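Example (one chain per record):
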Amino acid sequence: MEAEKVATIHGCCPNPLLILLEHQNQQPIPKIKSTTSACRHSFSATTTSSFFPNTHFTNHESLPSYQESFAQFLKTYPKYSETRQVDKIRNQEYYHLSVSNHVCLDYIGICLFSYLQVHECCNYPFFDISCKSVNLKSELLHGGRGSQLEFSIKKKIMNFLNMSSNEYSMVFTANRSSAFKLIAESYPFKTSRRLLTVYDHESEALETIVNTSEKRGANIMAAEFKWPRLRINSAKLRKLIIRKKKKKKSRGLFVFPLQSRVTGASYSYQWMSLAQENGWHVLLDACALGPKDMDSFGLSLIHPDFLICSFYKVFGENPTGFGCLLVKKSVVSMLEASVSTGIVSLVPPTKLLNSLDSSGSGTELEQKTNFVTKLEDLRISGSYSAHSSAQEKSKEESDQSIIAQGSNNKLDEKGSTDIQCRCLDHVDSLGLMQIGYRRRGTAMAFNLFDWKGERVEPILIQKLSDRNNISLSHGFLSHMWFPDKYEEEKQRTIERKKGEEKDAESQKSKRTDLGISVVTIALSFLANFEDVYRLWIFIAQFLDADFVEKERWRYSSLYQKTIEV
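Predicted structure:
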């Protein structure tokens, strides 16, 4: 089996966010080859030379046992043993991961609550999230602090992000895409006409902000990434950022992620500094940042005009959640009144209780009565707890409303609700160094080739991994630049994105649908060696020449349908 790594493990080195920002006016932006690149090479060399060196595996059955592999791993990377506190938290608070025997490698971002916290109480939601009929600028100017429940959760999240409420206002959004659309609908592209994005992959959120901005008259530009290591084409991006003439008006909106959700590549935040110096408004996409990354980010050095992040509910069980859009108060006045929906509010439990009527079966009424009684009892004692219902909402509401959970949420002496987000607390308790010892990167992209040298479709790999209780994702790399010496490889590698035909409006766009489809995995701070070992076992099965065909037949015999790719 051959393996083509379209992106190296960018996260296997010290977090580039820890690198101190050099002088603001220093140009060009210095490369970080001496730190991240050198460490990446060191990690690769150490793993190759120490982890079963000079061993050729012919099939998955020839791989060493889990016990032998883990012992060798600890010998090679002894600092991993200093992260036993993570295993303790996983066993106590997220025990469902072991019970279900499921490997979750498809979660990007941070969760709010632990599995134990959610299942400590009854089956009714602690609070609900529903759509608000208000535009972004109006909400930022006149929305106020919201309910005590919303205020408490906003405070929790802003503290976690190291953001000051004196400088930023925050609104909840239905999801990441909604936050991007709100910005695209509100940003003054009539006077600041450019939209410059820095993404090495396609996504629904990126497509949303690009399409919406383009319809409003924005000139769309995008950074390119050099093949084969997918580093930013610095020369081109610098030309796009730096303005030739000194003008007072803003050049436009610079949308920048510090890490790629697909490849795990990390980018220097000095690009944001350069953009600000040249009159751009900066939107920081923090959705792919790992735990505690904001601690090292240093907003005292870079103050983005907008920041978007997202949180999901429970790792390994409930991937739904909500987005957060933070806007610097000094730029709110320039925003235009938007017509888009997407802002949501948190509905306190009292509103939920008021909606409980006498309809339903006897069992349902008994559950409702027990829930009300339990809440009242807990309120008398000064605290209450509840968690989300696992039931999905109706189809009409599913796109607009999601359930969030809380547990051990205490009322202080002033009657204010103190929401406990136990997963955020776990991350804070572990700290940046321990998480760094545990996790070498947030994401990685790769492709697999069969014994004939033909690439296995990433969608098929994802479906086969599901059958092995392993959750993976697939993505589509784009905006790649191939130097002349890689022209032959470009013709062999590049492909057209599968899907529906472009509409007439998209056909006129300068954007391209050429790229590379890849398998992608994400390692949360809760991932352990066994998760990666099981992925290794699964990938090794592709050494079997008949594995794919046998799995196709097995799938069709069980479900009476073929695997579509």
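Caption: The first strand starts at residue 3 and ends at 4.
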